[in-house]
Amino acid sequence: MLDFPDRAYGELRHEDYQVLGFMGGLEVHQQLHTKSKLFCRCPPGHRVTRVDGEVLRHMRPTLSELGEYDGTALMEFKTRKEIVYLLERGSVCTYEMDDTPPFEIDGEAVRIALEVAQLLNLNLVSELHVMRKQYLDGSIPTGFQRTAMVGLTGRIPFRAPELGVDRDLSIRQLSLEEDSCREVSDIGHRITFRTDRLGMPLTETVTEPEFLTPLELQAGARLLARVAQATGKVRRGPGAARQDVNVSIAGGRRVEIKGVHHHRGLPRLVHVEAFRQLNLLRIKHALDRRGVEPTMLALPSTGRPWEVSHLVGDAASLLRACTARPILEALGRGHRICVVRLPGFNQLLDHPTQPGATFANELAERVRVIACPVHRPFLAHSGNDRGGLDPLVWQRLGREVGAESGDALVLVWGDDADAATAAREVLLRAGEALVGVPAETRQAHADSTTGFERILPGPDRMYPDTDTPPLPITDAAVTEIRERLPERPWEREARYRDLGLDARGARRLASAPWADVYDEVRPASRSAARRLATALEKRWPYHSRRGAASLPDAARLRPLARALEAGALRPEAAARVLDDLTRQPDVGADEIVVGYQPAPQDGARLDQRIAQVAATALELNGRSLDARLRWAMGQVVPAFLGRVDPQAIRQRLAAALREPAPEHAS
């Protein structure tokens, strides 16, 4: 597998991803449309800009019930972050700031979560037990997120004919939890959040890692979105749904990509991650061949690295005569500059990992997140570009730390504390290269690459919430919800396909916000029902994207549906009628529909219009008949759309344009 050539997205077949051992899973977070937040009675969904107060917090890790620290919590603690929360009195209360205990869990959110869980065919819990999940990145002021398991181990149909997929998808679990803050800025050791989103109820749906290609993963994400949207009780729009994607390849480890806000870029994103992991395995293989062992990169756990290890040196005195601008600026700020020796890493820092990135970027990302340097750049290395330093300077730096020909050197700088953290993180990340792919959480970038966010959390981050009593899930409540379940997306798709819609059209209509309106007015005739669905799918997204104040309701659509059913309206007119129903809300629906129906005077008007256009077409005699015919169709068809068959107009225009012009014509 290590010999598999790097390929851009779109160049691989299903079989190629099998060779890579690609596996993907999803964790889909969906905000619920409730009147209150999950553990208080503040209103959710209010995006604010006003600031009524600020709170400054510092986070520290706590022991789990087994007396152990979660590794992610310890990593976040190393960042020494000051966390600022911007408060607006209308969207938060003392619960969000952890000054009062939680309210009773919101019953409306519980009912919606139970509904989604049943749509996913999950086994429901008999009692809702709230747990605490540690988050020391500052996104939740309490330092933990309250979350409760709702359902486990379900299966739903997963059909994507265009991908050759026809199987079931396993759903591992669905949880109900509170949303986190919105990040405003993250500069150095200070991170700032807005709290308006904090505490909003959301569901987290986790699949098994059963997606075998990037396109399958995208199709699975869209399927889960359609299931949640089928309830009509979830929020839509930017940020209302977010995917975390789990990716691994053969020989690698699970990597979680956080906060993917749209489905469109998912395939390319996970493709790039798969090849990042492949290249990390290639680096591991090279290090194994060179005999590099973990002990060769180990640091004592205490003390400043340049004082306790031969792998790190204080390089400031060796760089006084340096002319590289970043180094001069660091010296001018009084920063500590450390040189770090990486035994056996010669030429590996330049090994590509992602488009436009090398293994040196893996080191830089780790330093950026944990050491939190303010100034850029903050790292240079002895690879191809040498950081603007002369080769003789790198030789002097190498002698300072006893470097040999097979070693690589890295320079990091900052104040004493940041430089010490940076040197340690460089060696820690280099040590992780010996295991290949570190288990970590990464952040998605707009160019489909990813950056380090934190190491992957373990089970020690979870523990019971002693502030919230268990909530029984009664059989009566479950039965009531089950009896009112909406139609599942795959059931609705099958019904639409029976009407004659193609697979793609049926899927899009089944997940559209106007599907219920369509079902309310759908004509009994299969052909008329298909034409109405096609018109809705073609025109309503157009008007929605352009900010239409409102789309026609069922009552306004009924005249159009009746006309299609009766054959009183030609199929090609349906889209134009929909446009007018949307753009002219003050005009009666019947009046608009009648305006597109055939009338007795259409024949005479058409004869007159064809004669006018044929006479004008004389000015185009230098052009081909086909060009003149296209121009003439554009002049005639719009005025008769829906009332006269376009093919009949074309035939009559073609005949008129072939006839010789009258002698008196000008």
Structure description:
- The protein is α+β, with helices and mostly antiparallel strands and 666 residues long.
- Helices cover 37% and strands 20% of the residues.
- The protein is built from 21 helices and 23 strands.
- The strands form 5 sheets. Strands 1, 4, 6, 7, 8, 11, 12, 13, 20, 21 and 22 form an 11-stranded mixed beta sheet that branches. Strands 2-3-10-9 form a 4-stranded mixed beta sheet, with no helix packed on it. The protein has a 4-stranded antiparallel beta sheet with strand order 14-15-19-18, with helices on both faces.
- A hairpin with a 2-residue loop joins strand 16 (352-354) and strand 17.
- The longest helix is centred in the middle third of the chain and has 24 residues, at 266-289.
- It starts with 13 loop residues before the first helix and ends in an 8-residue tail after the last helix.
- The relative contact order is 0.10.
Beta-strand share of residues: 15-25%
Would you tell me the overall average pLDDT?
Answer: 89
> Residue ranges: pLDDT <50 for 5 or more in a row?
661-666
Task: Give the overall shape.
Answer: globular
The radius of gyration computed from the alpha-carbon positions, rounded to a whole number of angstroms, is 32 Å
Q: Report the total helices.
A: 21
Major beta sheet summary: 11 strands, mixed
Let me know the number of strands. 23
Alpha carbon gap, first and last residue: 76 Å
Q: What percent of residues adopt helix (DSSP H or I)?
A: 25-40%
Category from helices, strands and their pairing? alpha+beta
